[in-house]
Amino acid sequence: MLRQEATVLKTQLATLRTQITNLQKAAAPIAVRLEESKLSLDTTEKSLLTMVAEQSRLQAQLLALRDDASSMEMAMDAATTAAALTTLQQTVRNREKAVELSVVKRDRYLPWLKYFDEVSGLVCSQQNEAIAKYERNSPQIPSWPRLPSCFRSY
């Protein structure tokens, strides 16, 4: 009976040793991961939960910061666009004023332009008549090709 018990105990011991080996194999990667995470092997579940809660809080803060940064970027884009639009609108207003001033100036000088155009036409026609009369009265002048006597530069 003692031998039977010894045999049963030896069998149980071999089984337990196999289980211990398997547990040690399973615990080794866990120990490595704990070490990589800078945690000791004797870390308690409570301290691990505290660390997880802290990491979750930090993650939430980072997400909030990312959202804030995104909102600020959109606000900066909107401000930049508004500034560019304002600049363009001011440029358009300035150019419209310049056009208005040019139209006023043109309208102010137009009567004078017409007046001097008429005076120029009269002077040219008188000049042409005088030249034609002179040529008729002076037959000794050779007949050279004539240049136009009045030019208009506008």
Account of the protein in words:
By secondary structure, this protein is an all-alpha fold. The protein has a domain at 2-103. It contains 2 helices and no strands. It has helices at residues 2-36, 45-137. The model has no long low-confidence stretch (mean pLDDT 88).
In short:
With 154 residues, this protein is mainly α. The chain has helices at residues 2-36, 45-137.
Unreliable stretches covering 5 or more consecutive residues: none
Secondary-structure element series: HH
Number of strands: 0
Rg of Cα set: 53 Å
Global shape: rod-shaped
**Terminal Cα separation, in Å?**
137 Å
- Summarize the biggest pleated sheet: none
Mean pLDDT: 88
The tally of helices reads 2
- The amount of beta strand, in percent, is under 5%
- Strand pairing plus helix content: what structural class? mainly alpha
> What proportion of the residues is helical, as a percent range?
over 70%
